[in-house]
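Example 332.
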Amino acid sequence: MKDIFDECQLGDLKLNSRIVRTGTWETETEEGGFLTPAIYDRYEKIASSGTGLIVSEIFALDHKDRFFEYSTNMNYRGFMKDYQMVTDIVHKYNVPILGQLAFFYYDDGDNQKVEANEIQLEGIRKLQAEVVMAAKKFSFAGFDGIQINMGNNFYLARFMNPYFNQRDDKYGGSTENRVRISSEIIKVIKSTMDMHVSCRINPWDVRKGGITADESIAIAKELENAGADSIQLTARTISYLYDGKEKHPFLVYVDDLIDAIDIPVILGGNSRDMKSMNDILNHSEVEFMSMSKPFVAQADFLADWKANGEGVSICQSCNNCYSKKKSTCFKY
Ligand SMILES: Cc1cc2nc3c(=O)[nH]c(=O)nc-3n(C[C@H](O)[C@H](O)[C@H](O)COP(=O)(O)O)c2cc1C
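Predicted structure in complex with flavin mononucleotide:
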């Protein structure tokens, strides 16, 4: 029998449980952009209460990016000091942490919003170099790895999507070609630093002519072949698709994905109670599950679940935290 609190291994990372606190905006910095004591406190509560792995909030590449206002920037003066403190705090509890990089737009130097069809080879190389540099900075700050968000509607998700990418060079056309921009980044990171590389991808796309579930599995294989260490599923519509009463929508697809690749897969979205999470673990091949909003509602709720052997999050899924782009629960 699998249990969310099993100690386990996620690729090269040793986890205290199967639960991943997934990427969650903070948007609560002091003047000058430095982290507040409340943020350190939150990381400590999350790490000390039974979480297996933490993914940071989004770090943007560029201060003009779409979510920059809510995300954090790894180029601010205090980044190294602040995040060394964050990684030290969570490592005290033997919890690994990944820095999440996600960008919606890309500025190639000529065009702040250059899209997949327009970006030239020099722009692709600049983008790849910036992502590799971000991984290096995360490693200096003590992160155990990087999670590159190539899901939702972020730049690399659009780049690998035939709906957006009609290039006729080696970065367009086949799945391999559309994923190449990301595969090459992963190969460089894996061959030059000791960092876990996790890729957050979409299991499908709602657009006609976009990614199908079969192609998403082919994308995951490409990423695995390039050296990715884990895959996390995401989807913009997940909160609306799943009301918790029916089978998790990703479950129709996730076992096929897990069978097709040899790296761990993290399933997430709308998990709110221990019993149904354990049901999913024991009625599928899923081994890792992620949560975000329950940690916003109560950062250390897992301690109660662990002590009681059961539990239901107080999160009502009102989504106000998401709408306001804050790690603050507006209900409690
Ligand atoms: C306040 C808030 C901030 C979020 N910030 C991020 C983020 O920085 N990066 C990311 O990939 N997803 C982010 N998300 C999406 C979550 O990671 C997650 O996919 C989504 O909330 C569904 O999971 P849940 O039902 O467990 O909340 C955020 C969600 C919320 C509610």
